[in-house]
């Protein structure tokens, strides 16, 4: 392994991403192509996603290397997300990366996508000059993930709790659909919530105050649907829709803060609460979590949105952290994509 830049590929869901990072974490180039075909279908269609990754990967990789002013021979390693995620996309991205590694005699690093989210906050550009030391508490909240993780070191993670039904982003997307808003629903619900009263609608807060750090959103989603029943297929008056959006959002923020508070007690030696995933874009949720961190004198770290959502910078950085932690052992090219890793 040469201390040269690392090229990384991310294809676990509906974003095709490629990045090149220097060993010190400096981003030399990165691009993300977000698939738009799914919006009209109301969610990610795995087969369409996999084919779209295949269509864009070669040109995307060439463009990213061009942006960085590098060729494949300048690289020290090639990394790819190999799980968890949608199997088709994982196979496309990891096989592409393995092919490049094999052709150029470069080490291949198989990266766990969740681990990449977990280590993003340690990127020098996010952690700041003092860095971010272990342990810290991570709340990963996106359309596909919803979990509390104690991050104790590279390769040392403890899942403290997760959702027992829907992910938080999924709940936002479903409520958005009920309110007649577009997909993805999170940003639309947040925008509408600004016009509404967060206390207008009485909604349940599943698992709130209960021991443990698990999440549940399905009862909340059902409650929203029941409250909307009287309106039938008629369009909801704007005021009611805004009140519902605001009340739902406040509810999710309360649940998150409560679960984070419970998780924080399990990692007493932590010094930071880190939030990642698309839902971390939500300012009401950020504010609630910031409160949990400040009550413990912890740092609150939310990577910039482009690093919170799926990207290849985090994949390259996780590979660099691994190469540092375990010396120069690359992964075998026979390592398989693991949808449930
Ligand atoms: O991390 P992400 O881009 O993709 C994965 O799921 O891996 O997260 C997307 C999710 C979607 O469910 C979207 O509705 C939600 O994050 N989201 C938000 C906001 N922006 C995106 N949820 C609440 N408020 C937002 N502002
Ligand atoms: Zn993700």
* Bound ligands: 5'-O-[(R)-(carboxyoxy)(hydroxy)phosphoryl]adenosine, zinc ion
Biggest sheet, strands in spatial order?
3-2-1-4-5
Radius of gyration based on Cα positions: 20 Å
Helix and strand content put the structural class at: alpha/beta
| Count of distinct structural domains | 2
Largest sheet: 5 strands, mixed
The first-level CATH class name of the largest domain = Alpha Beta
The low-confidence runs, each spanning 5 or more residues with pLDDT under 50, are none
The portion of residues forming beta strands comes to 15-25%
Oligomer: single chain
Order of helices and strands: EEEHEHEHHEEEHHHHEHEHH
- Quick one: overall form? globular
Instruction: Kindly identify the CATH topology of the largest domain.
Output: Nucleotidyltransferase, domain 5
User: How many extended strands?
Assistant: 10
Question: Taking all residues together, what is the mean pLDDT?
Answer: 94
Helix content: 40-55%
What separation lies between the terminal Cα atoms?
Answer: 26 Å
Subcellular location: Cytoplasm
Domain Gcp-like: 26-317
GO molecular function: iron ion binding; peptidase activity; tRNA N(6)-L-threonylcarbamoyladenine synthase activity
EC number: 2.3.1.234
């Amino acid at each position: 392994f040469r201390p040269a830049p690392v090229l990384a590929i991310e294809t676990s869901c509906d974003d095709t991403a490629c990045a090149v990072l220097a060993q010190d974490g400096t981003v030399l180039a990165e691009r993300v192509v977000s698939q738009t075909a799914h919006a009209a279908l109301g969610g990610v269609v795995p087969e369409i996603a996999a084919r779209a990754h295949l269509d864009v990967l070669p040109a995307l990789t060439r463009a990213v290397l061009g942006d960085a002013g590098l060729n494949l021979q300048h690289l020290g390693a090639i990394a790819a997300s190999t799980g968890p995620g949608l199997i088709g996309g994982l196979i496309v991205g990891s096989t592409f990366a393995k092919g490049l590694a094999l052709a150029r005699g470069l080490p291949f690093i198989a990266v766990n996508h969740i681990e990449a989210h977990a280590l993003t906050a340690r990127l020098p550009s996010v952690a700041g000059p003092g860095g971010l030391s272990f342990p810290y508490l991570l709340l990963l909240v996106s359309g596909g993930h919803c979990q509390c993780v104690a991050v104790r070191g590279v390769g040392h993670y403890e899942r403290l709790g997760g959702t027992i039904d829907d992910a938080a982003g999924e709940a936002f997307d479903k409520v958005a659909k009920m309110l007649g808003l577009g997909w993805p629903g999170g940003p639309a619900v947040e925008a509408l919530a600004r016009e509404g009263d967060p206390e207008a609608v009485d909604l349940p807060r599943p698992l709130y105050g209960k021991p443990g750090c698990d999440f549940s959103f399905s009862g909340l989603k059902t409650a929203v649907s029941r409250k909307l029943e009287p309106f039938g297929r008629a369009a909801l008056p704007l005021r009611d829709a805004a009140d519902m959006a605001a009340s739902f959002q406040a509810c999710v923020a309360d649940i998150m803060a409560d679960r984070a508070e419970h998780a924080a007690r399990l990692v007493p030696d932590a010094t930071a609460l880190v939030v990642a995933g698309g839902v971390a874009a939500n300012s009401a949720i950020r504010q609630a979590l910031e409160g949990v961190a400040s009550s413990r004198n912890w740092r609150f770290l939310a990577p910039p949105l482009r690093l919170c959502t799926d990207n290849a910078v985090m994949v390259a950085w996780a590979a660099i952290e691994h190469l540092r932690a375990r010396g120069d052992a690359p992964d075998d090219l026979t390592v398989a994509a693991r949808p449930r890793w």
